[in-house]
Amino acid sequence: METNEDITILNEIAKDERLEDIAKRHKIAIATIRNHIKRLEDDGVIVDKKYRLRYKLLGMQQIILGLDVKPENLLEVIKKLKALKNVDELYRTSGDHVLIANMTGKGDELAEELKRIKKIEGVNKIYPAFVEEIEK
User: Fold this and answer.
1) Is 81 in the same domain as 113?
2) Rounded distance, CA 84 to CA 68, Å?
3) pLDDT by residue (tens digit) across 118-128?
4) Same-domain pairing of 74 and 14
């Protein structure tokens, strides 16, 4: 079980703050943070580490895609979405949509990918939201 300070440090790491700054602020060694990160990676708590990009500045688009899927087709739809080139992240949710996909690519690539997704058996409806700007 993680302490409140551990959670605070993990949130700072997730926001991609520099380890040196985190260590100094919490008065711990950088090696301690690295060891902690390694243990959490091994335990599956840390899923990945990545940079957030403003795809628009690269001539690309980012879509957050909500999907309504028939329950009996859910596992097969997940499998097919995972195989698609432009699907970067895929989440099973309990909200308005059963699945949420984060997609990136060139405009025409994404349009074609959306057409393919609509045709997957069991996908009832898709709700694409084009990301205009990252606010936080």
Assistant:
1) yes
2) 18
3) 999 999 999 99
4) no
